[in-house]
UniProtKB/TrEMBL annotation:
This is D-aminoacyl-tRNA deacylase. Coiled coil: none annotated. It comes from the Eukaryota. GO terms for cellular component: cytoplasm. Its EC number is 3.1.1.96. Transmembrane segments: none annotated. Belongs to the DTD family. It is an enzyme of class 3 (hydrolase). It comes from Nymphaea colorata. InterPro entries: Daa-tRNA_deacyls_DTD, DTD-like_sf. Pfam families: Tyr_Deacylase (PF02580). GO terms for molecular function: D-tyrosyl-tRNA(Tyr) deacylase activity. PANTHER family: D-AMINOACYL-TRNA DEACYLASE 1, D-TYROSYL-TRNA TYR DEACYLASE.
């Protein structure tokens, strides 16, 4: 899926140390997808 991650460039590699922890991010992403399904069309949001 296409989703922008929070990161900063550190040299040639992205650094994700200030990003949300994986468990919180998974819950956040699931609620975001649910919100998209409710406001758009459940069949169009996978």
């Amino acid at each position: 899926s296409q989703f922008t991650l929070y990161g900063v460039l550190k040299g040639n590699k992205p650094d994700f140390h200030v990003a949300m922890p994986p468990q919180k991010a998974e819950t956040f992403y699931a609620s975001l997808v649910d919100r998209f399904r409710r406001s758009y069309s459940p069949d169009c949001v996978k």
